[in-house]
């Protein structure tokens, strides 16, 4: 319904409802110091030490204490994002060998991603038209590293089968469920898993507080709408301007940070 067909009384009621809502939001608005703390927590948890240090100076907040532990996570994340999974696994083991020894699913995800990167390299070097013999390194890696784990869990077996399918179907005939394995988004997801595992191994909170707040906000909105609470039809989260100004919300000061 266009605004020209809305009755004056309906329009007036809508405006009053919006104004009342805006007033309630303003009354509940968090303090600037609380917002700064959430931002600092995100920068430290996600691994942006340089940005965290700059932000601390600008806001007079205490900066991160253990820079090296943050930089260790950054180096692991950078390796995964660039496809150097073998190097990332070595670095995780140097940080704490028990991480992958105890988190078998995470270890499998890393090995699966390493296999995907081997296949990706083969496809790239052959311009998407590899010979069957080109896949021997991938088959050898899958046989030695992943196949022994597959019989222990159907999830592992299915994941291995999907990954091996990358060597069977041509790129132009590959189903979406297989193509998504070659999406670099998988690297980001695994990197996030690894970052959480490292934080947990150090007895730190495994997730930035803002992620919990966003989920809580989404849950609250869903519950409120289910209860027929009088509220605006659209409630933007309020990050659009920041996202446009900061490359999707990722600090651009050189700090680098995946079934």
From TrEMBL:
- Give all residue intervals belonging to the CTLH domain: 69-126
Q: What span is annotated as the signal peptide, if there is one?
A: none
The UniProt annotation puts the region (Disordered) at 240-259
Which superkingdom does the taxonomy of this entry point to?
Eukaryota
Name the InterPro entries on file: CRA_dom, CTLH/CRA, CTLH_C, LisH, Ubq-SigPath_Reg
What biological function has been recorded for the protein in this entry?
Answer: Involved in the proteasome-dependent degradation of fructose-1,6-bisphosphatase.
- Record's protein name: CTLH domain-containing protein
What organism is this sequence from?
A: Hortaea werneckii EXF-2000
């Amino acid at each position: 319904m266009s605004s020209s067909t809305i009755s004056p009384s309906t329009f007036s009621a809508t405006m009053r409802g919006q104004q009342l809502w805006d007033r309630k939001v303003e009354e509940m608005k968090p303090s600037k110091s609380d917002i700064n703390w959430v931002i600092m927590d995100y920068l430290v948890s996600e691994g942006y030490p340089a940005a965290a240090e700059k932000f601390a100076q600008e806001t007079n907040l205490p900066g991160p204490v253990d820079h090296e532990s943050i930089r260790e996570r950054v180096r692991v994340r950078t390796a995964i994002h660039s496809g150097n999974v073998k190097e990332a696994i070595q670095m995780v083991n140097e940080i704490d060998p028990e991480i992958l020894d105890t988190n078998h699913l995470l270890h499998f995800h890393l090995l699966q991603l390493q296999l995907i990167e081997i296949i990706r390299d083969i496809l790239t070097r052959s311009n998407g038209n590899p010979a069957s013999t080109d896949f021997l390194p991938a088959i050898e890696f899958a046989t030695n590293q992943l196949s022994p784990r597959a019989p222990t869990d159907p999830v592992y077996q299915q994941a291995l089968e999907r990954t091996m399918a990358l060597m069977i179907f041509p790129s132009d005939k590959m189903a979406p469920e297989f193509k998504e394995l070659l999406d670099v988004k998988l690297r980001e997801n695994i990197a996030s898993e690894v970052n959480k595992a490292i934080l947990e191994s150090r007895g730190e909170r495994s997730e930035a507080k803002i992620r919990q707040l966003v989920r809580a906000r989404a849950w609250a909105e869903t519950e409120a709408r289910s209860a027929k609470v009088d509220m605006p039809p659209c409630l933007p989260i309020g990050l659009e301007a920041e996202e446009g100004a900061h490359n999707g919300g990722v600090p651009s000061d050189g700090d680098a940070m995946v079934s």
